[in-house]
Amino acid sequence: MAQGDLYEVALGSRLFNQDCANIFHFVQTAPVAGSLAVPEALIISFLNRRVIGMRAMSLPDVLYTSVRARNLFDATEDVTNSVSLPGTSAGGGADNSTLPSFNSYGFSLNTESGLVKAGSKRLVGVPEQATVDGVVTDAGYLGQGVTVANSFAADMPSPPGSASNAFRPVVIKRVRSGTPNNYEYRLPENLAEAVFSRIISALFHVFVTTQLSRKIGIGS
Fold first, then answer.
1. In this structure, what is the dihedral angle of CA atoms 203, 205, 27, 9, given to the nearest 10 degrees?
2. From CA 187, how far away is CA 199, in angstroms rounded?
3. Backbone φ and ψ of 7, nearest 5°
4. Which end of the chain is more exposed for a tag (fewer CB within 10 A), N or C?
5. CA–CA distance from 208 to each of 33, 86, 177, 211 (Å)?
6. Domain ranges, ordered by start, for the chain
7. Nearest residue to 73 via CA among 194, 196, 185, 208
8. pLDDT of 190-215, one tens digit each?
9. Mind listing the pLDDT tens digit for each residue in 34-89?
10. What are the CA-CA distances from residue 18 to residues 38, 99, 161, 179, 199 (Å)?
C-alpha cells in the first residue's frame, strides 16, 4: 500500500448472457482517507467516478456485475466486490434495442510519455436507435460519451469525501521477455521494472466499433 504503487481495476459486466470485461490501471498518488484499505477505497471511487457515467451510456440490458482492485506489487492487496448495476440509459424508448457486444463505444486514452503507447477502451450497450449507419448521432449520447472520456483521464479522490486525489489513471507498458518470434508480455511485478504514463486526455469515437474477432465464426 505504498504511495507510487500501481493498481489494476477489473470491471465485469454481462450483455445477452455474454461476459464482458474492462481493465483500468491507476497509480496511488496520496494516502487514502480514513481506515479503508487502498483497494476498497479505489473501488468506491471507481464506482462513483467512472461506472456511473458508463451506466448512463448503456441500456438496462447491460448489467455490471463485479469490480476487482488489486495491487500489482503486493498480492495481499486484492479485493473483489460483487455488484448488480444495470445500465441507466432510457435509449430511444420502449422499442429501442441494444446492439450486440461486438458493437461497442470506442475510446482512445492519450498518454503523456512517448515511451507508452496510447490505450483504448470499449464499452458495450450501444442503443441501436442512437446510431445511423454505424455512427453515434444522438446528441445525448454524444455528450455523455465526452463526459465518460473526460472521466477516464481524471484523477480520483480517496473516499469518503476527501478533497485530495489519491488515484491517477495510467497506461502501463508490458514487460517483454523471451526471444524474437517467441516474445511474452506481462504486467510489471515491482516498481523497478514498471514503465507507465499518465493519461492526459481521452477521446470518444463517434464510429461504433465492429470487433470482428468477437463475431461467431470469425477469429479464434
1. 160
2. 17
3. -125, 145
4. C
5. 39, 21, 35, 10
6. 6-214
7. 194
8. 989 999 999 999 999 999 887 654 44
9. 778 999 999 999 999 999 999 998 888 899 999 999 999 999 999 999 999 999 88
10. 30, 13, 35, 36, 29
